[in-house]
Design a protein that fits this description.
The chain is of the alpha+beta class. Among the domains are: 43-122, no CATH class; 160-249, Glutaredoxin (3-Layer(aba) Sandwich). The protein has helices spanning 2-17, 116-134, 178-189, 203-215, 238-249, and strands at 43-45, 52-57, 63-66, 80-84, 94-98, 109-115, 168-173, 193-198, 225-228, 231-234. A six-stranded antiparallel sheet has the order 1-6-5-4-2-3. A four-stranded mixed sheet has the order 8-7-9-10, sandwiched between helices. The chain is globular. The N and C termini lie far apart (93 Å).
Length: 254
């Protein structure tokens, strides 16, 4: 009996000293940049670091891409997402972000880890704040005001015109880029074949995009970067796309 009692006592002592596994009661809501138990490998940036894809967010919640640290404007420098085209780290659920307003004594910048959820939450927060500022709710119509809907114009512009089925357009973008998806949907609605290239997942695609930007005399900007038979468009604009497609169809593009 003494042996049995000793075994029970030892078990109780071990149980009391063992860590308790389970929820801490504090939920990660995706809005804290460092709210992750996993960290990316250390990354040090310098003004001349090559093969970079830098994404910054403006006050409207729109994302812009630059290729060099010096090209990031002052408004976007406090929070910049960093992708190194020859590294896979930082392209999935964990991102590298840097504050380019804080240069260390040796001239470098330190990149830290941020979750994909936290980055997307920051984008949505800025977009929501901007929309709330510029588009307040409309007041109710006064009594007796006409509520009849505007008549349809009946113009062909109401529906995107079809484009020759042999037209192929290349979109350089990223999975999280909403304008990239919108550009793809618009082009497909016009009958255009679309080739998508993710510049984060493919170093070759990022290098190809940079080469086309350089040759066209452009220094980055918003993604998507769209290649319409040699016409390089930065950002998504229906009007610019329509004009480029029209030129391509008439043979005036490369």
């Amino acid at each position: 009996m003494r042996a049995l009692g000793g075994a029970i006592l030892a078990a109780l002592v071990l149980a009391g000293s063992a860590p308790v596994l389970g929820c801490s009661g504090k939920k990660e809501d995706g809005t804290t940049p460092m709210a992750t138990s996993e960290e990316l490998p250390a990354l040090t940036l310098r003004d001349d670091t090559p093969n970079l894809l830098l994404t910054w967010i403006d006050d409207k919640g729109d994302m812009h891409v630059e290729l060099k640290l010096a090209d990031v404007p002052a408004a976007g420098r406090p929070l910049v997402r960093v992708v190194v085209s020859d590294r896979e780290e930082g392209t999935r659920d964990l991102f590298y972000v840097a504050d380019l307003t804080k240069k260390r004594d040796d001239g470098s910048y330190e990149a830290r880890t941020m979750t994909r959820r936290a980055w997307e939450a920051e984008v949505e927060k800025r977009r929501a704040a901007y929309l709330a500022k510029v588009a307040p709710p409309k007041p109710p119509a006064p009594p007796g005001a006409s509520g009849a809907p505007a008549p349809s114009s009946g113009k062909a512009d109401d529906k995107p015109p079809a484009v020759a089925s042999d037209m192929t357009v290349i979109i350089y973008g990223a999975d999280w880029c909403r304008p990239c998806h919108e550009a793809e949907e618009y082009l497909r609605s016009k009958g255009v074949q679309v080739v998508k290239k993710d510049v984060e997942q493919s170093p070759a695609a990022a290098a190809e995009m940079r080469d086309k930007l350089d040759k066209s005399g452009q220094r980055g900007g918003s993604i998507p970067v769209i290649d319409v038979r040699g016409q390089i468009l930065v950002g998504y604009s229906r009007g610019a796309l329509d004009r480029a497609l029209s030129r391509a169809q008439t043979g005036t593009a490369l």
